[in-house]
What does this fold into?
Amino acid sequence: MFTLASSQPKWLTKANYNMNKSTPESAYSLTNTTRLLLSEAPAFMKMKPLFLFHLLPEAMAPWHTLSTWLKNGDISAFETAKGRTFWDCLADEPSLSHIFNKAMASDSQLIAKVTLEEYKEVFEGLTSLVDVGGGTGTMAKAVANKFPNVTCTVFDLPHVVSDLQGSSDADLITFIGGNVFSDPIPPADAILLKVYIYMLRCIYYVVLY
It folds into this structure.
């Protein structure tokens, strides 16, 4: 007979059990949240790359310069810490860009699964969709697989999509390079801005990066 104990850490859950013994024994297991960090988790639940990215020195640097940033005229705390924007840093450092894209892809896998299962009616009736800032196309590819009649396009910075335009995924989705702040977004029935689903994340990227 299992009884859950209260006030346990969010990363572990404790259960008391009695297997025909006079004295109950305790056991611990991972919570649903910490299961997202397992390497052997299902593909859509593998959030480890996203977690590890935020532990990189480049990702932590803005937090250590907030007080200085509040007193100067830099656009972001990242610029104060590194002397350039976060996006310029990714463009100049392919290894960091690869880690970032992998982190965003892991995030997109979970969001895509939930969105396409719980809110699939949003995509019904569409014939075309543009994923702005769609990275390596994880979200767009999920939409295209679920709705083959929807023509999906990923619109992201040139250095992000340059190596993807001739990839196998290009048979399923189209990659177009450009800057959302200066270039026109390709026309479509719908525009997907996944990163803005979370208002806190939006603020986080604008202020820190």
